[in-house]
Every structure is written in C-alpha cells, then in structure tokens.
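Entry 14. Two folds queued back to back today. First construct below, sequence then structure tokens.
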Amino acid sequence: MLTLTINGQSRDVDVPEDMPLLWVLRDHLNLVGTKYGCGVAQCGVCTVHVGGKPVRSCQLTVGDVGTRAVITIEGIGSTPNGAKVQQAWMEAAVPQCGYCQAGQIMSATALLDTNPQPDDADIDAAMAGNLCRCGTYIRIRRAIKNAAAKSA
C-alpha cells in the first residue's frame, strides 16, 4: 500500500511500485483528465506536477513519487497560476480537439510558476515538449502571455 498526496488529498493505493503514475491516476483514482499520449515521455499529454515540477506521468513510477505532492489537471485550477492559465485558455479559445490541453496547461502553469513574465523564447522552450496535433501553438502562446499579464 502506498500513500500519495494528490491535489491536496492523501490517497492510499494498492499498486506495484513500478506502475507508472499515469495508470494509478487514471485507473485507480479515476482522475482521467491526465491523458495517455505516446507512452515514452515525448508528447507531453500526460504532464502533471510532482513536487512542483512538471513531469511526464507515463514514465514516472508511482514508487518514485515518494512523499512529493502530485497536482493533476483536476487540481491545478486551485493554484493561483493554474487558475489564471485555465481562464486565459478559455478566453483565447485554445482547444481544438482538446486532447493535449491538460498537458499544455500543466506545462504553462509550471512556466509561470518559475517565470512570471516569459518572453516568446521562454514560452517556446518551456512548451517544446508538448505536442498539439491540431497546431494551436499560436493560441497557446497568446493564452500564456495573457495569463502572465494577469500576474503583472
């Protein structure tokens, strides 16, 4: 039995320590906002925050989480920057198909947590590992800039 802190709540899970965090979230805790994309940490769809850092949950084992807090897309809106990013996402009409958006929002929030006023190069670097098959990159950048402006 492992105890995880997910979105501020302590959750017990009876899973093998080598199970990817993604499957614990989706299959054992019913937190299905975090999606499966490529399975090899290349697309960013499965991004969550662990210990305040964005990580690919498809490759991080639940045993490696340890005592670090996990925040998923279901909980990111309760953080100041997460709420700003989610609002900016809606205002900029970012999602097209929406599949990658949870990972995009998680990465964008992590960026603003470390750099409240990113320029285009900062945004491009932080978001480089998040792929969008619909190509909404211009709207994503606009939303991040709008969220940052709300912080200023």
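Second construct, same run, same settings:
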Amino acid sequence: MTYCVAARLNAGMVFLSDSRTNAGLDHISTFRKMMVYENPGDRFMVLLSAGNLSISQSVREILQVEKVDNGDGPPITIWNARSMFDAVRVLGAAIRRVREQDGPAFEAAGIDFNAHMIFGGQIAGEAMRLFMVYSAGNFIEATRETCYFQIGESKYGKPILDRVLTPLTPLDEAAKCALVSMDSSLKSNLSVGLPLDLVVYQEGRLHSEQIVCIDEHNPYFRMIRGTWGQRLREVFEGIDAPQWDAGAAALHPLLTESPRYEATRKIHNLSEKVV
C-alpha cells in the first residue's frame, strides 16, 4: 500500500507521496510514487500512483509515448495537450492499454487490476486542474467544494485535511497540513513509509523548484512529528473529563437522558428479553 495526497488551492498546488511498497511482512521495498513532468513556461504536471506497482510502472512508461486520436489534428500526448483535461485523457488511455495487455493474465492469476492515480498541474493558457483517475481509466476532477484527493491508505490522514484545507489555504499551510496528514498515516499504518516526496507549485509559474525528498533526518519533518503529537496531547488534556454528576454544578454533564433514545438495557437473568 501507500499514501498520496494532492490539493488544488487558489495559490497553487501541493503533492505529497510516500515510497513504501510491501508484499508481506518480510518483503518491504522503497519505490517512488511520484513523477513530475515539466516544460518550463509551457506546462507543469505531477502524477501520483497507488495500487499494484507493476501496473503503475507500466502506465508511467507508456504515458511518455501514449497518443490519443485528435481527428484531423496531430495525436494528443501529455507534451502537446492544450488542456489538463486532454492530458488526463492520455493518462486514461495509457491505463486502458496496460489493462488490455496485462488484464487477462491478471485475471487468470486471480489478481485484481488495481491502480489509482492523482494527476494534476497547469498548462499555459489554462487554470490549474486536479484529477483522480481510476483503474478503468475514467476520472473525476477536484472542485472548490472538494479541493483535495487521496489515494492509498487515506483514512488516517483525512481528518486533518477536512478540518484545515479550503481553496483559501496558503501554500505553506497546505504543505504543513499534508505533512501532518502523512505523519498520522505513518503513525498508524506500517504499509506507509519514508522517504516522502513533496512538491509545492505556485499558480501560474509553470515550473517549480520547491521539490524535496524527506527522510527520517529531515529537520522540518522531525519537528512536525514531535510537535504534532505533543500538541495533540496538550489539547486532549485540556478537554474536561466526563462529568457523570448531572447536578447544577456540572457544566457539561454526560449522564443525561436522550429525548429520543434510552440507555442500553441490562440483562439480569435468562427470562429477560433484549427486545
């Protein structure tokens, strides 16, 4: 498994991925899940992948040369596409080509054709766009209401994203949020692991120098890991303990009656029924 997250904000985009793959407890390896495609001044695109590693690697290889028919015009590739929509169509075609080639063998071996990808960036003359691409080659696009996508082990890192990220979030704050989200996944799931790849892209730049590989020695990420855990404990300790006394002195009593539901019943002997 893996964990990847990407966000499209007013100020730019943030992409973050881990690098762990595993086929059992005794077979853990490091493979990068991020690819950056850049033609400065013309286009900047990032691909994140999760799922079967052999599928992801095949798709990345084919994506470089994949073409989509364009009627009377030249075939569309990721390097000449005039919109991110056309570029993600090329990615979908690459996934379908791998499925056509390898799908029957996967099915015969009883293996699911499992690949999910996040693809986003900006092409000159167009706004930034971000897509979630499924194993059938179909895709959906991020909106202002849902400005980020996750793939892989997403559940542990989702709560902080839901509470913090909006289109108005500054880029540095979004990068910090993504790293906290990743730290939560690292803490709770062994199938997510260092090193991490982080890319921060500023809207309209059509290139980025804010690209870093983060390992266990990275000072900022070490600070994130220590500070986040400490601050969570401080906040937790600052919340009142349950107040079982429903008297007037209790500011937030726990032992109160619900206007709709009764408390769980106790069973005292064999003759009593649950219902």
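Quick look at the second one. The chain has five helices and twelve strands. The chain has a mean pLDDT of 94.
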